[in-house]
Amino acid sequence: MKQFYRDLAPWLKLLLRRRQQFLVGTLLVWVTLLAGLSLLGLSGWFIVACALAGVALAAGLPSSLDVYVPGGGIRFFALLRTVARYVERLYNHNTVLTLLADLRHRVFGDLTRLDDASLKRRRASEWLSRLTSDIDNLDNLYLRLLIPPVAALLTILGVSAFIAIWLPVVGAVVAVVLTLLWAVVTFGYGWLGFANSYQQVSDQEELRRLVLDQVQASAELLSYQTQGWHRQKVEQHEALAFNNQRRLAVKAAMGNAFLSGVTGCLLIATLWIGSMALSAEQVVGPILVMAVIAVLGINEVLVLLPAAFLKLGLSYGAAQRLNALKVNQPVFDVVELPENTEGLSLQFDQVSYTYPESVAPALINLQATLPSQARAVITGVSGSGKSTLAGLVMGRIAPTQGAIRVAGISPWHISPESRADHFALLTQQTDLFDGTLEENLRIAKPSATEEELWQALSSVALSHWVQQQPKQLSTHVGEKGQQLSGGQARRVALARLMLRDPKVVLLDEPFAGVDAETARHLAMSLDQWLSGRTAIFLLHQIDDVSLLPNVDCQWHLDGGRLITDTTADS
Ligand SMILES: Nc1ncnc2c1ncn2[C@@H]1O[C@H](COP(=O)(O)OP(=O)(O)OP(=O)(O)O)[C@@H](O)[C@H]1O
């Protein structure tokens, strides 16, 4: 129970920061419910009173009835119910949208503070579901699990007190039975459906993952003729998830049946006790009818609670998953690198890095120094740790041991803005947006002139090709640059990088995917552009030394260890 509260507490605190809206929203729901019940009760009273007055007159007995006051009351409650419901919907929807914004802001903030290794541990679709369905489930906490039960309890107490004015015993019975019923359909049902609804969170995520795999990897599955095997996996999981949902639906149906059963019995009890009071002339007929109709209407107040509380596990599961985003988030003061620095030196001091959930370290005791404005080439076979090293230098992950320093400062501690200004990395994977060439280039420098864009394209031997395109700079590159060849897309990424003015540059396989002549062109452009910057080339092997002029250090990564004794002076 303690753990349950601890997991939900941060989100409840966030929701209750808007407690004023919560109170007004609850009050509006309460007024709407009371107006509805009052309308029902008063109408019942009025119809019976009219009928009795009519019967008395028909029997020749003197009888009178003031129809104006109750008639006015009925109109008042009818209007109040409509207006209160309208205002309540407007107000609570506004509150819910504000809360959604609060929640998204908080979760998005947590996501942006995650390091590369944590981000890579999950798929983009999983992060998306944190931002969408998990947040919606937490939002339900407010909309379905906080406001309705409070409004329902207040209504129960209000109706019981109202009945007790004429029928104290009935009022007491109604209060006790409905309060117990309220406890059962809230706490009891929360407990009853917890395991199933908690399971539903992971079921949905797993199902989404499997279906996405089925679609995304359809080409591979088709070529290996294994789409049936994978579809079977999806179907098996779907069946499990469906079973779980069915159990939850059965519980919800049983909950409603139980609720109707208890309120039905309460209605009979009210009628029975009230009839005894009527025959003892303690109460008049119309009042008894009003009490019975009020009890009848109370069903409406409670009817949504069982289904909402059966899904408590959904909100709890979502809270737990979102809480996990905060784990390992470091707390430190970020620093800025000086604006106009000439160059930045790099120092690795016994740096080791082990990925979370990995046993073997990816990098072991790296010891090296790269002076400011110097160039290094680091070679290493696939899996030797080159990308990990790049992630460390870029400050995307922090060393698990040792220290890495850029101009004496740990990159991990440098602000993201300052890092973006001073550091640049060309990764092996090309990330282009589904837009035009110009839009993709301007991401690096929105204020770039057209001349600068052409210059950058010319540096990567693409200007000629772009000039031949009908739309030139407005040529669409497609999603992830799919309308370009692999080599062209990488060159666009390189041109984008060259539009900036970073002091530390890391180039992961800059010559991959291009022919020998283009590679020479790139090497020449890079040589000029890298002058005055500190640079590291990350390569599997050196195929052509002439592509790497002016290299000061040549290092080799072997199984995560850096061998620095191969010094080149070209
Ligand atoms: N996100 C990750 N989680 C766990 N282990 C990882 C992760 N990324 C890389 N590794 C492991 O770390 C080691 C170094 O990987 P890294 O990607 O740095 O190698 P690399 O030299 O860049 O390889 P390549 O040339 O193929 O890109 C490998 O053993 C790899 O399995």
From TrEMBL:
Predominant location: membrane
Pfam families referenced in this protein's UniProt entry, alphabetically: ABC_membrane, ABC_tran
Membrane topology category: Multi-pass membrane protein
Residue ranges of every copy of the ABC transporter domain listed in the record: 346-570
Cell compartment(s), UniProt: Cell membrane
Transmembrane segments: 21-40, 46-69, 145-166, 172-192, 253-275, 287-310
Keyword tags: ATP-binding, Membrane, Nucleotide-binding, Transmembrane, Transmembrane helix
Coiled coil: none
Protein name per UniProt: Cysteine/glutathione ABC transporter ATP-binding protein/permease CydC
Organism listed in the record: Vreelandella lutescens
